[in-house]
Amino acid sequence: MHFRNFMAIDWSGAQGERHKGIALALCAQGDGAPRLLHPPGHARWSRAEVLDLLLRRLPPDTLVGMDLGISLPFADAGAFFPGWAQSPPDARALWAMIDRLCADDPHLGAASFVDHPGLSAYFRRHGGREGVHFHLPGALHRRGRMRVTEEAQARAGCRPYSNFNLVGAAQVGKSSLTGMRLLHRLGGRVPVWPVDPLPESGPVVTEIYTTLAAVAAGRTAGRAKMTDHAALDTALAALGSQPLGGSGAIDDHSADALVTAAWLRTAAHRSELWHPSELTPELAATEGWTFGAA
């Protein structure tokens, strides 16, 4: 692989401008410890600042992993929103629709999308509001619709949640929808794998799941979160990285980003992770895939 730098972004779909849940970490080739990146003049990142970094300030040949879902389930029903005449045909059209419907939502928010009268029935929202289309008819579980890549994550021992679920501490729906607004605004200037083919040079953005990185670093899926420097350095060592150093507590968002950046450095050269057996061209264009899910 041509990548020389490796960045992991722990993302947030929370309301507001700046978020403690957004953390960015970067490392280069070799075994140097990853380092946290901070926004200029602020303690916390905004989503707009992350977008600006991706468009204008990436180091050369950077593989960027974002901890979010880059699309919604499609393969299980042949549509993102089965039964809705305006359901978009592929991921890029989905991103464009979300950004258009949320044009008045500040800070790349996505509240207008899930409150849309034609779309709210597909989501599980707060206040016990579970849309009639949150589950497909005859669903075998109550977790909501899953993408093919999320089923692969589950086989690896993870506990993925449906991107149509917007409720609970572990939900990823809000972060995924706000992330899709960012992906649309990249405008093709930074390829998004596997929606876009892998280029021979330059930066690439891909979806990651930080639990997969933690498991590769010797943690279990149930103990993926690290909240102290000692646990973090142990995980980094398992990935062939120099320690970050320091002592005491560290927030789990920063730890997730640091470990995942180091993992991306070890995983980027593995051809099989770029060619998962279930990933068809149709699936790449609609649902996408999580890098590292086999």
Structure explained in plain terms:
The mean pLDDT is 95. This protein has helices at residues 47-56, 91-101, 111-114, 148-155, 173-186, 210-216, 229-238, 252-267, 271-274, 281-286; strands at 5-10, 18-19, 23-28, 35-37, 45-46, 62-67, 124-125, 129-130, 192-193, 204-207. 31% of the residues lie in helices and 12% in strands. A hairpin with a 6-residue loop joins strand 3 (23-28) and strand 4. The chain has a domain at 5-70 and 190-274. It starts with a strand and ends in an 8-residue tail after the last helix. The relative contact order is 0.20. It contains ten helices and ten strands. The longest helix has 16 residues, at 252-267. The chain is globular, with a radius of gyration of 18 Å. The strands form three sheets. Strands 4-3-1-6-10-9 form a six-stranded mixed sheet. The protein has a two-stranded antiparallel ribbon with strand order 2-5. It has a two-stranded antiparallel ribbon with strand order 7-8. The protein has 294 residues and is an alpha/beta fold. This is DUF429 domain-containing protein.
Enumerate the spans where pLDDT stays under 50 for 5 or more consecutive residues: none
Number of helices: 10
Task: Give the fraction of residues assigned to helices.
Answer: 25-40%
SSE topology string: EEEEEHEHHEEHHEEHHHHH
Strand order, biggest sheet? 4-3-1-6-10-9
Rg calc: 18 Å
**Average pLDDT rating:** 95
Shape: globular
Q: Count all strands and give the number.
A: 10
N/C terminus separation:
18 Å
> Biggest sheet, in brief?
6 strands, mixed
Strand-pairing-aware structural class: alpha/beta
Strand percentage: 5-15%
